[in-house]
Amino acid sequence: MKMKAAVCREYKKPITIEEVNLAPPKEHEVLVKTKFTGYCHSDFGAVEGWLGFPLPLVIGHEAAGIVEEVGPGVTSLKKGDRVVATWMVPCGKCEMCLSGRSYICTHCHTMQPQGNLADNTSRLTDAKGERLSHQIYVSGFAEYMVLPEGGAIKVPDALPLDQACFLGCCMPTGFGAVYNVAEVKPGDSVAIFGMGGVGLNVVQGAKLRGAYPVIGIDLKGNKESKAREFGATHFIDSSKEDPVPKIQELTGGGARFCFEVIGDPGAIVQAYWSLGIGGQLIQVGIPDIATTTPLPLTLTPPHNRNIIGTLYGNVRVSVDLPRFMDMIVRGDYIGMDKLISKKFRLDEINDVHKAMMDHDIVGRWVCEFD
After folding, report:
1. Cis peptide leading into residue 213 (ω within 30°)
2. Closest Cα partner for 349 from 55, 31, 64, 8?
3. Does 216 lie in the same domain as 253?
4. Are both 189 and 295 inside the same structural domain?
5. Are residues 213 and 302 located together in one domain of the fold?
6. Domain range spanning residue 213?
7. Closest C-alpha to 86, from 320, 297, 287
């Protein structure tokens, strides 16, 4: 089928909106009509070349839509089901999956850097018939998606799809980092570097765990209001003030947990220096593959500091995502509608990319499809 899609053909160059071809779903795959896709910092990084995805690439990974067709062997979904796309689709067979760490499935980590789906092939071609890469199984900035059956999680009717798309990345990535990785306890001091979509969900997770203080840090002071709405007790505008001494002051010597959710080497260093004795740096953000982080590790052994990486909040997608959606529907988690600050059309995506480059996005901007 033919459809419109956002294609990155060259790193650091404008995204092109093209008519591309999407092959039908194969065995254990589904065709989904895209309704909403959030623009994530990882999409920005993909276009800038930070992540090294093969080009040309149909971008996007935080998407929700409606099942249009199911391929052979699909049993858990049917036409008309409302679903959120998830880019971590455990194979269930590799060592990581069998040891209970399905969130770093080896098969996913092998297929996705090649721009393929789980069978090691692409469903996407351009108008000339040339292969296009998928962005981590999803490619959500397109009118339709072909997803693995396990990569399409049902959404309850009570949860609007413009909010459900956040279950594809920012909500579980932030919330899971607090619950599954750090296991924050009441009274733990927490500092979060970066008040974007993921950072705000770290903030809310820390609030729900009873952390204090919950300190939001960002280069843009206009993000303070949204950070406090999600649960930050303090906010530091790092364009005007060095956050390290301020965090040390607010926490009585250094935070128990620092979360870096931007992928910025400078912020990672600041987060490390903001830790107290026995503190943990939870690295959520992914830096540019071409950069290095000048991290001074002298105090790591004597202070028993830990640096821990996490992907997608270490969630079990088939179990945790439905639970998270139920939390939102019950009102136990702040409505994801408060995360949406703007909706845009697919042909406006370069403006959105520039806004993210300029740090002008507050909350999450979401692409709405017909």
Report:
1. yes
2. 8
3. yes
4. yes
5. yes
6. 173-311
7. 320
